[in-house]
UniProtKB/TrEMBL annotation:
Pfam families: SAND_ULT1 (PF23292), zf_ULT1 (PF23293). One of its GO terms (molecular function) is DNA binding. One of its GO terms (cellular component) is cytosol. This is SAND domain-containing protein. InterPro entries: Developmental_reg_ULTRAPETALA, SAND_dom, ULT1/2_SAND, ULT1/2_Znf. Residues 24-114 form the SAND domain.
């Protein structure tokens, strides 16, 4: 590929990024950078115990949100979802990333929920809901469990939203996942595991103790497959959707 073609593609990506938001919408935000097909801003999350964890948030036109953490000089956490960053920062009240993750606007910390930065994320969520309704189906994912590599105990993951599905997806992809990585609560291997009699209840709408049926087992949808994930399952799903 010639250098002129590469330059043209880079210019198109930058133009795409610059068109995501009006200049006035971003002018008072700190750390704004328009990149190749995305807009990047400085963000953070505050823990009462550890203080502020700063990072950089990238907003993509397909609704994806990607965070690179800069909480310490040696932190190597990148391509985090907002929910994963919220957990990584040590925020005590997790699962509310739209309110807990903030950006600096006019010198003040403003929750993402009160900015324009969730515009494409919200549009993508609405599009997914409309698509499911038009097909006459309601995508439902039952609860799943992930086992700790150190103690072997299984921890429950809810899969009712795209963020929850991503947390479970990332945990399943991590061969060294352990209890301390659990995204919802600060736990250790010492924490009790759910009783067997309780674990059979996974939230199926057809039967409370269902072991898996077409109502609660999903083999791939836009809620639980991710275009920015390089695992073979997501790559195959994305390729089939585009085909």
């Amino acid at each position: 590929m010639s250098s002129s073609v590469v330059m043209e593609e880079d210019e198109e990506k930058i133009q795409c990024g610059s068109m995501l938001f009006e200049q006035e919408e971003l002018q008072e935000m700190s750390g704004v950078n328009v990149g190749g097909g995305y807009v990047e801003v400085m963000c953070g999350c505050t823990s009462h115990r550890y203080g502020d964890a700063v990072a950089r948030l990238r907003v993509f036109p397909n609704g994806d949100l990607e965070i690179t953490c800069e909480c310490t000089p040696g932190c190597d956490q990148d391509k985090l979802t907002p929910a994963a960053f919220e957990k990584h920062s040590g925020r005590e009240t997790a699962r509310k990333w739209k309110n807990n993750v903030w950006v600096i606007v006019g010198g003040e910390k403003v929750p993402l929920s009160k900015t324009v930065l969730l515009k494409y994320y919200n549009e993508a969520s609405k599009k997914l809901n409309r698509s499911n309704k038009s097909q006459g189906t309601k995508v439902f994912h039952r609860d799943e469990f992930v086992g700790c590599i150190e103690c072997g105990k299984e921890r429950r993951f809810r899969l009712r939203s795209r963020d929850e599905c991503r947390l479970h997806h990332n945990a399943m992809a991590d061969p060294n996942w352990k209890c301390s990585d659990f995204p919802y609560d600060k736990i250790t291997c010492e924490a009790e595991e759910e009783r067997g009699s309780r674990k059979v209840y996974k939230g199926c709408t057809r039967s409370p103790t269902c072991k898996g049926c077409t109502s609660c087992v999903c083999f791939g949808c836009e809620l639980c497959r991710f275009s920015d994930c390089s695992c073979q399952t997501c790559v195959d799903f994305t390729s089939n959707v585009k085909a």
